[in-house]
Each structure stands twice: as C-alpha cells, then as structure tokens.
Amino acid sequence: MSCDEIRDEFNNNFYVSQVEKDFPIAYIFVVYTNAGQVLRLLKSIYRPQNLYCIHPDARQGKRFKEFFTTVAKCLDNVFVVSKPVKVYYGHISITNAQLQCMQDLEKYPQSRWRYVINLCGREVPVKTNREIVESLMKLRGYSP
C-alpha cells in the first residue's frame, strides 16, 4: 500500500470535538500476531490528535515489524517502538515492552498526551474516544 492509500484508510471524516483535541491520549499496542486485525483495531480507534506506539514482538519475523513500520511512516502520530523486546505471555517482558513504548512516547512532547492506554492486538475499547476522554478528565490527573 502507498502512503496515500494508508492515509485514505485512516481518514474516517470523523468529527473530533474541541474537548478531544485538547485532551490527547497515547495508546500502546503490544502485538505478537495477526497484523491485519491490529490494523483494523488501530483504524477503528484512530484520531489525529492521539499518539500510537506499536510494539511488535521481537520474536516475530522481520515482515511483521516492517508491516507496522510502513503504516507508521505514513501517519505522523503512529510509530513503531525503537527497541522491541521478546514478549512472553504472563511474563515481566510485557511490562518491559510497555515501558519501552512509554520511553519513546516521551520523545513526542508536541502531542501533549495526558494518559496512556495499553492494548494488545485483540482488545477493543467499548467506549468512543470522546467517552474515554470524558472519563479520564474526571480523574484530574490521577491514575485509576
């Protein structure tokens, strides 16, 4: 896919309220399989003001990471983690992968993200971006 095609796929012509624009969220995806499913998830929650870090499991092949690198090159607010780690189910390596993404998120201060939401490639938020923003605003900077 070309960058024009990828950008068209992500341009959902969705309405983004001022509240959402003023309250960007960072998302971390720790993924190990099914790149197409992860891409559909990303497209479903994608908003231009949010920031997205994708951590492809280092145990996966080169093509798996390259798939996400191609997408990230076309979208300014999506990137692939700089130092992927090998992730094992139920292991501290999951936290290490998330922490690596958090370190990389710090390199994007222009996004002004307020909270980080961790997802794997199979989770789907049941609330809209606006509902998530409204819930997080009630926390006033605290973590639940």
Automatic annotation (TrEMBL):
It is found in: Membrane. One of its GO terms (molecular function) is acetylglucosaminyltransferase activity. Pfam families: Branch. Keywords: Glycoprotein, Glycosyltransferase, Membrane, Signal-anchor, Transferase, Transmembrane, Transmembrane helix. It is a single-pass type II membrane protein. Pathway: Protein modification; protein glycosylation. InterPro entries: Glyco_trans_14. One of its GO terms (cellular component) is membrane. Belongs to the glycosyltransferase 14 family. This is Beta-1,3-galactosyl-O-glycosyl-glycoprotein beta-1,6-N-acetylglucosaminyltransferase 3. It comes from Geodia barretti. The lineage of its organism: Eukaryota, Metazoa, Porifera, Demospongiae, Heteroscleromorpha.
